[in-house]
């Protein structure tokens, strides 16, 4: 058409056939583009779904033993963000790779039929692109791996820190952790930028090679036209086709680097998939006794055995109690029996058959197990009780709750058994959580019962109820009890005493042989423990109020994030505009050059155009490289700031404000949703801004040449840049807004699956939880497929509009040349400029989808940032008193937000300097709530709380916690070394200080025997320690902090009685003259405290010196009688 109009003066009517053919090609290209994109994205969604499900299935199959050595946050990130990062690889890189093989060959075949010289130039330069791509790809490989490792580390660290926020706040380290988050996010940003610099360098090299090669072809064509060696038709054909030969290879390079993070994650994914699953036998499970034969367990990296040469028999229908010092290996034996730990030597026989040869699932189907720290899932109480029997009716659930002594407190909750719990049973006391777990075992109704300290954290009255329930449950069953407290011993037919490296002694009908044990009691199989004390981070807040009272949209707030980086973003916008403008300038100049050269002028007349062609070609690559670096650096800095802001907000919310939050969802918000915010800038605002600037310039230039052509181009660009995004955005709106919540839901299901795998496995609930994760993945895949429809529609419509615009420009151009209103030289410019100008708007339909996606992600991030404070902090806090004494509570009443009655009511308490008070009472009486109020983790509903005469609510919360410290009954241990966990209390503590604190907690001998001393890693929430060792390490940390007022919440829980009583005596001796509030179930040693306060139903029902209270009728005397009876039983069992 250009040649016909320019050289032959043909009219529109004479060029009707070429115009119709061009129209048909435009429509065909649009259809192909739509189907290709749709197929690629849907195939990608299906492959990612399959891969994710396989990862989760393999992780579950590898079992608790393997999971205990992994970081939960990293695994969740791998199964969610890691798999999602492969989207560009499957949907763009692989299809583009196929095009890169086919298209250049087809283009070359067409060019060589017209001009072998131009084909030779392309053949000579084309191989340089894959060579450079491979060389630079090798250089990026290690950087990609490092970037993914940093993201994985950030995920693991964040989950660990969020779980331990209450502990961090106790020691005044929560705000300092913001710096740690900032440092890790900074390292992640720098690792990402190192990767991007190389990746962008690769794109720069590929684009520069392709652009210079096209410019070289264009200049060569021009010179040959000047000398009459080529006609204009062939020159224009080659000019249009030459970029198409390079484009697929350029796109392969660009898409490969876009998929870089996914490829790095893929290596880790396949490491999981290729990890061999522990062997399981296939024989049926026989009836008969359970016999341990010389069982020895030594964990990797440990210098001593956790259990050594243990031999023990439990006859069918017999109840055996395992007792012994904390850390002797009792729980380890249960884990071996459950198949979670492989014995280093020896074996276990069931009914005479080796346990290793039995069908593992069939064996678990015969076992009900209550671990030392039972895991409760976010959901209703009834759903937790039904874990092993999901089909149980309401009557059966209530019966199990009654047997476990839990029905009374459950019915007192607002919704009874349908009351929603947070993760780990947040909202219940430790004793209440224990009883829910017992109810779960009672409902399971299985022939083998394994109970690991089932009465831990229970008061004497509730303990007596549980003893009666266990007695009923044990009838006709084989029961193995791990016992520290004596009340349960009356249930046992035999008591087996485990002592380190000494023969076992038994009471009962028969001897059980000898058992020796090492220092480590247990390698917990739950991966994510901690006390989030969670609650939903508050009702969704979609935007803050503007001064005028109207709501500010979240996208306005995202734009406001730019702050001091607006200058860098403006520079990025300018550079992006120059890059796109260079592409348009290159095409327009090349078109003019070839048209002018066809007139065979002196070469000197063409030198300016030749130079401009080279400048535009080089400038396009240089400006694009610079724009990418500047924009990504600015945006990644904003994301780092946002992550720190999210953490700081969570620090303010914890613990009361996170009682219903789900850690998997919080992780998704911090990682995936915060990362999505970058798309607002790099995939929406900056491309849209550059598109507007370049489109305006292109339209202005074309209109200067021919107003009608300018109008056609303006209409086409407006349709493709605004109309098509509106259409595709409308199609995608619902899917895009559901994408982030669906991703969060998948993270929650993944966290549920990975954090409670041990109990799910034994209960037989693992397939159901896997099915829930699959359903969440299917929902996400369906949403992604619907979003892909909109993406494909946008690509197809853009291709159609581009073709129609070129047809329209050609039509008006031909007519203008025929009318003499347009010079022949400008004809090629008018027709070919739209091809380059549409590059500016081609990505806008997808950009509009990213804008919608970002909106929902931003809403989820701002839900956290805008959540109301659960605890009032004064705007202008008063200076903290020099001394907190006296600490006074008057008429104090408090409740948690979702409760309809007070957990504490009318409490009066005074702590003078040096005074020691013990608080006792039944489980759920309000003892732990009192500790929460004292530490300002929970606001009092009414009453007064003063420190040294100053209103505690007029002080900063951290200032209160500098005076009042806590050792909680479920204090969090971080995934670090023993030393780092201790130094949390005092960063300047010396080695002597650490050893002294360990000695006071009766843990120094254990620490001296560790393989790496105080540098030994404890695992997530102390997974590599026994329950008693965890408790004593937390106690040592609290003692090291040296708080003026120390609240000890069940400090001797999970310890054997001699150790517990000795530790209590040591604590009371060590705290003589120091202000202490001791919360305890056990009464031994309380003669040494100044006052005993008895709580019941949140009220003080008795108070006074221990000796006076125990001598009169009342609740304390009853508690003492039950405890004394239990000790008599323990003594009888020993005899």
TrEMBL record:
Which GO terms of type biological process are on file? Answer: cell redox homeostasis; cysteine transport; glutathione transmembrane transport
Which intervals carry biased composition (Basic and acidic residues)? 517-545
Gene3D superfamilies tied to this protein = ABC transporter type 1, transmembrane domain, P-loop containing nucleotide triphosphate hydrolases
Pfam families associated with the record: ABC_membrane (PF00664), ABC_tran (PF00005)
Q: Which CDD domains match?
A: ABC_6TM_AarD_CydD (cd18584), ABCC_MRP_Like (cd03228)
Its membrane topology is listed as: Multi-pass membrane protein
Residue ranges of the TM segments: 93-113, 119-140, 198-226, 232-249, 569-592, 604-623, 684-706, 712-732, 796-818, 824-847
Q: Which residues form the ABC transmembrane type-1 domain?
A: 1-261, 570-853
Q: Where is this region: Disordered?
A: 503-545
User: What does UniProt give as GO cellular component?
Assistant: cytoplasm; plasma membrane
Q: Which residue numbers delimit the ABC transporter domain? A: 290-525, 887-1122
Name of the protein described by the UniProt record = ABC transporter
Which organism is the protein's source?
Streptomyces ruber
């Amino acid at each position: 058409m250009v040649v016909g109009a320019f050289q032959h003066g043909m009219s529109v009517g004479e060029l009707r056939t070429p115009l119709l053919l061009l129209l048909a090609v435009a429509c065909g290209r649009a259809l192909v583009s739509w189907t290709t994109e749709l197929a690629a994205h849907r195939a990608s969604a299906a492959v990612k779904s399959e891969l994710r499900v396989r990862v989760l299935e393999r992780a579950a199959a590898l079992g608790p033993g393997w999971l205990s050595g992994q970081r939960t946050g990293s695994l969740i990130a791998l199964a969610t963000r890691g798999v999602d990062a492969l989207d560009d690889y499957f949907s763009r890189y692989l299809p583009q790779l196929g095009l890169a093989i086919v298209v250049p060959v087809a283009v070359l075949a067409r060019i060589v039929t017209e001009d072998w010289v131009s084909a030779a130039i392309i053949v000579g330069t084309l191989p340089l692109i894959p060579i450079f791509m491979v060389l630079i790809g090798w250089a990026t490989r290690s950087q990609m791996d490092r970037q993914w490792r940093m993201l994985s580390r950030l995920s693991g660290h964040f989950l660990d820190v969020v779980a331990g926020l209450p502990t961090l706040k106790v020691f005044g380290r929560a705000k300092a952790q913001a710096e740690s988050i900032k440092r890790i996010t900074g390292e992640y940003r720098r690792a990402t930028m190192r990767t991007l610099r190389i990746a962008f360098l690769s794109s720069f090299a590929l684009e520069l090679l392709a652009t210079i090669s096209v410019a070289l072809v264009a200049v060569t064509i021009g010179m040959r036209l000047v000398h009459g060696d080529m006609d204009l038709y062939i020159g224009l054909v080659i000019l249009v086709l030459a970029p198409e030969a390079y484009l697929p290879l350029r796109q392969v390079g660009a898409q490969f680097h876009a998929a870089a993070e996914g490829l790095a994650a893929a290596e880790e994914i396949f490491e999981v998939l290729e990890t061999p699953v522990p062997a399981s036998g296939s024989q049926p499970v026989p009836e008969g006794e359970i016999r341990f034969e010389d069982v020895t367990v030594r964990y990797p990296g440990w210098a001593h055995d956790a259990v050594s040469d243990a031999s023990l028999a439990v006859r069918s229908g017999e109840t055996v109690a395992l007792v012994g010092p904390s850390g002797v290996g009792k729980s380890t034996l249960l884990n071996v029996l459950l198949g979670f730990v492989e014995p280093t030597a020896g074996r276990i026989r069931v009914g005479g058959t080796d346990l290793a040869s039995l069908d593992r699932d069939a064996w678990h189907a015969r076992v009900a197990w209550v671990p030392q720290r039972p895991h409760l899932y976010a959901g209703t109480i009834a759903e937790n009780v039904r874990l092993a029997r999901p089909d149980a009716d309401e009557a059966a659930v209530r019966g199990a709750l009654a047997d476990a002594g839990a029905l009374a407190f459950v019915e007192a909750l607002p919704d009874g058994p349908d009351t929603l719990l947070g993760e780990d049973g947040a909202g219940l006391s430790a004793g209440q959580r224990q009883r829910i777990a017992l109810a779960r075992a009672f409902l399971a109704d299985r022939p083998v019962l394994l109970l690991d300290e089932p009465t831990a954290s229970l008061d004497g009255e509730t303990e007596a109820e549980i003893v009666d329930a266990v007695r009923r449950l044990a009838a006709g069953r084989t029961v193995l009890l791990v016992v520290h407290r004596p009340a349960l011993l009356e249930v046992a037919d035999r008591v087996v005493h485990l002592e380190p490296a000494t023969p076992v002694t038994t009471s009962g009908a028969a001897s059980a042989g000898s058992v020796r044990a090492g220092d480590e009691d247990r390698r917990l199989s739950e991966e994510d423990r901690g006390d989030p004390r969670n609650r939903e981070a508050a009702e969704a807040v979609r935007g803050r109020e503007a001064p005028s009272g109207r709501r500010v949209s979240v996208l306005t707030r995202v734009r406001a994030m730019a702050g001091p980086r607006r200058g860098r973003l403006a520079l990025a916008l300018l550079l992006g505009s120059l890059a796109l403008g260079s592409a348009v300038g290159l095409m327009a100049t090349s078109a003019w050059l070839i048209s002018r050269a066809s007139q065979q002028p002196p070469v000197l007349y063409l030198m300016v155009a030749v130079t401009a062609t080279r400048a535009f070609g080089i400038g396009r690559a240089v400006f694009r490289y610079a724009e990418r670096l500047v924009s990504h650096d600015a945006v990644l800095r904003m994301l780092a700031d946002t992550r720190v802001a999210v953490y700081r907000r969570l620090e303010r919310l914890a613990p009361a404000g996170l009682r219903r939050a789900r850690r998997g969802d919080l992780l998704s918000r911090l990682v995936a949703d915060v990362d999505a915010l970058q798309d607002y800038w790099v995939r929406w605002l900056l491309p849209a801004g550059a598109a507007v600037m370049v489109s305006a310039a292109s339209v202005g230039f074309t209109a200067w040449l021919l107003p009608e052509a300018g109008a056609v181009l303006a209409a086409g660009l407006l349709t493709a840049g605004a109309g098509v995004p509106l259409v595709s955005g409308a199609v995608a709106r619902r899917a895009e807004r559901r994408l982030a919540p669906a991703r969060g839901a998948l993270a929650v299901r993944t966290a549920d699956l990975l954090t409670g795998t041990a109990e799910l496995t034994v209960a037989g609930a693992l397939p159901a939880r896997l099915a829930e994760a699959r359903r969440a993945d299917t929902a996400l895949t369906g949403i992604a497929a619907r979003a892909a429809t909109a993406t494909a529609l946008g690509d197809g419509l853009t291709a159609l509009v581009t073709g129609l615009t070129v047809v329209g420009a050609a039509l008006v151009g031909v007519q203008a040349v025929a009318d003499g209103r347009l010079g022949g030289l400008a004809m090629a410019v008018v027709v070919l400029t739209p091809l380059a100008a549409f590059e500016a708007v081609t990505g806008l339909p997808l950009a509009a989808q990213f804008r919608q996606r970002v909106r929902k992600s931003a809403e989820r991030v701002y839900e956290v940032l805008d959540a109301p404070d659960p605890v009032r902090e004064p705007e202008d806090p008063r200076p903290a008193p020099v001394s907190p004494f006296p600490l006074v509570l008057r008429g104090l009443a408090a409740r948690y937000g979702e409760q309809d009655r007070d957990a504490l009511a009318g409490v009066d308490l005074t702590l003078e300097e040096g005074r020691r008070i013990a608080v006792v009472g039944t489980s759920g009486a309000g003892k732990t709530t009192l500790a929460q109020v004292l530490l300002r983790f929970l606001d009092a509903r009414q009453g007064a709380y003063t420190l040294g005469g100053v209103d505690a609510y007029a002080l900063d919360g951290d200032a209160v916690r500098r005076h009042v410290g806590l050792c909680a009954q479920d204090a969090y241990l971080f995934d670090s070394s023993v030393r780092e966990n201790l130094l949390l209390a005092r960063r300047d503590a010396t080695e002597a200080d650490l050893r002294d604190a360990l000695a006071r907690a009766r843990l120094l001998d254990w620490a001296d025997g560790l393989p790496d001393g105080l540098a030994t890693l404890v695992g997530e929430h102390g997974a590599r320690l026994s329950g008693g060792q965890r408790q004593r390490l937390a106690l040592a940390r609290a003692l090291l902090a040296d708080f003026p007022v120390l609240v000890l919440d069940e400090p001797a829980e999970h310890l054997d009685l001699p150790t517990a009583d000795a530790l209590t005596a040591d604590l009371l001796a060590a705290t003589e003259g120091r202000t202490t509030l001791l919360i305890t179930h056990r009464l031994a040693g309380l003669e040494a405290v100044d006052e005993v306060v008895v709580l019941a139903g949140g009220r003080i029902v008795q108070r006074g010196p221990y000796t006076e209270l125990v001598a009169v009728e009342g609740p304390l005397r009853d508690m003492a009688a039950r405890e004394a009876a239990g000790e008599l039983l323990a003594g009888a069992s020993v005899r």
